Amino acid sequence: MSTLFQQLVNGLTVGGIYALIALGYTMVYGILKLINFAHGDLCVLGAFIGLTVITSLGGASGSPEIWVVGLAFVAAIIAICCAGVVLEFAAYRPLRNAHRLSAVVSALGASMMIENGIMLIWSPQTLVFPQGVLPQISWHVGGVVITFTQLMIIVISLILMASLYLYVNHTRFGTAIRASAIDQDAARLMGINVNRVIVSVFILGPALGAIGGLFIGLYYRQAVFDMGWTYGLNAFIAAIIGGIGNIPGAMLGGLLLGLFNALAGGYISSTWQQAITFGLLIAILLVRPTGILGERVAEKV
Amino acid sequence: MSDLLSVSDLHVSYGQIEALKGVSLRVAEGEVVAILGSNGAGKTTLMRSLSGLLRAKSGSITYDNEELVGRRADLIVRKGIAQSPEGRRVFGTLTVEENLDLGAYTRPISETAGSRAEVYSTFPKLQERRSQLAGTLSGGEQQMLAIGRALMTKPRLLLLDEPSLGLAPLIVKDIFTKLRTIAETGVTILVVEQNARMALKLADRGYVLEVGRMALEDSAANLLASSQVQEAYLGKG
Ligand SMILES: Nc1ncnc2c1ncn2[C@@H]1O[C@H](COP(=O)(O)OP(=O)(O)O)[C@@H](O)[C@H]1O
Ligand SMILES: [Mg+2]
Based on the domain organization, do B100 and B65 belong to the same domain? Predict the structure, then answer.
């Protein structure tokens, strides 16, 4: 029984991270019907920038330095938001009216550029996050261990998701984002500057992704230049499971996939994890081809 | 009387296909003007060009003494031109109220509730359905929502692209009665229609658009009586 709860805690941690990253995929897809393959790499870039801040400002003393970690998050968020806007401007905007495939190629190119950029600037090797930058506290609740890092990731992820949900559903600009995702021309007829909405999505998604990326680094205490493939792929699958283009869907898909992965890893085998993930994806798409919360295309007319 | 809108020699193309081949028209402040034309005549192309969703190749669109060609669609809305587009294009997965409130996007938030109340008094059906998703409304209700949403922008000029499209005669009649009420509040209306009878009954003046060119221009009464219009658009009624 305690194994189950332990896996739930672990799964919720990873699921929160997947959800944060999945939101970036889903918001861009919602508006541009484009899969931003570079998104996972942006998140990894966030982890590396955070790591650099942590190792250059602290980490040597071995005692907790929360302010350094806070600063690492701020730096990562700002840098990745800027990178997101540059990406939209340079890689996607010029191809807005081009063939769908051109944008896909551009996305893959951007992904490779970021990945190789990280490798050149930092290292082709796996870099290690210093131990002890976060408090090494853990709580034992009836045989289940939850660490400070896990609690931080779970709580912050949930708060961010709730905030984004409220923002998108209960503010005027949030409604404009949803409207632009439904029908860009109709949104323009409401006086919405759709280009500004698109830029905002390339700020919101990367901001959440930078946090997710740095969470990965802090949780697993390591970062490697090509981990955008594994984590990005999982987050992308989470977005599809939830219904790509659907914001609550990405949150749900992320949490579900994290939990499922942890349970499968705990009870079946962790070497088969990726295969099991794809199994889940296929099973869900067989039952609901549009993902759990995905709308039927017919509703869009 | 000075014109609120004047279009001259407008050319609009889709690639090699020229859909508008030098269209001119004018609409005075407070007027209701109808443009009749059969399928493919270029009515929607004209409306989309006026709203800035399509860019004209040449010619000019003057509104309130300003040139609109080349201006961004969202800025044209701010100038006071609203459009209820062909096929209604309501935001199906947003509620009726969210759809309406988006119409007030360019205006101070404090004015939203008041304008919404005005739209509800014109279209009480929308108030009943306010928390429903727009996609679940009937065609007539969606058309009312599209018009209500356009009114929320507080337009001086309201463009209507085939408000009767796909609707039953009784509902069309109802909608045109509402349009009469809206016109009486001082909003200038430019409506394009295949339903010539309804449009001409509402309008002061009318034009006939034929494959990208204006073929006729006259008072609505004269057009209703003209044999050319009767044969082509009124089914010899
Ligand atoms: N997106 C488009 N691409 C190419 N041709 C188009 C497009 N939209 C309309 N057309 C053509 O332009 C002409 C005018 O169309 P439209 O303005 O929709 O007419 P109407 O609204 O009067 O039915 C038609 O010949 C139509 O086939
Ligand atoms: Mg049309």
Answer: no
Minimum CA–CA partner of B109 in chain A: A172
Are B133 and B207 in the same domain?
Answer: no
Closest ligand by atom to B162 CA: 2
Pick from A185, A187, A299: CB nearest B135:
A299
- List the single residue in A191, A295, A300 with the smallest CB-CB distance to B77: A191
Model-level pTM?
A: 0.94
**CB of B45 closer than 6 angstroms to any ligand 1 atom:** yes
Q: Is A244 a domain residue?
A: no
Last residue within a domain, chosen from B106, B136, B154: B154
Distances (CA, A) of A130 to A4, A48, A154: 30, 13, 21
* Predicted complex ipTM: 0.96
Question: Atom 16 in ligand 1: which residue has the minimum CA distance?
Answer: B42
Cβ of A290 under 8 Å from any chain B Cβ?
no
Residue whose Cα lies nearest atom 3 of ligand 1: it is B14
Those residues whose C-beta lies under 8 Å from the C-beta of residue A194, and which sit 6 or more positions away, are A180, A184, A187, A188, B74
Number of neighbouring beta carbons within 10 Å of residue A233: 15
What single-letter amino acid sits at A111? S
For residues B183 and B112, membership in a common domain is answered with no
Residue B21 and residue B108 share a domain: no
Helices (H), A122-192: 148-170, 172-182, 184-189
Q: Kindly tell me the burial class for residue A247, based on how many C-beta atoms sit within 10 Å of its own C-beta (0-12, 13-18, 19 or more).
A: buried
**Tens digit of pLDDT for each residue in A103-115?**
999 999 999 999 9
**Inter-chain Cβ pairs, chain A and chain B, closer than 8 A:** 75
pLDDT digits (tens, 9 = 90+) for B202-217: 999 999 999 999 999 9
Question: CB of A176 within 8 Å of any CB in chain B?
Answer: yes
- What single letter denotes the amino acid at residue B128? E
In terms of residue numbers, what domain contains B42? 1-80+156-237
DSSP-assigned states of every residue in A47-79: HHHHHHHHHHHSSSS-S--HHHHHHHHHHHHHH
CB neighbour burial string for B63-102, b if at least 16 within 10 angstroms, e if fewer: beeeebbebebbebbebbbbbbbbbbbbbbbbbbbbbbbb
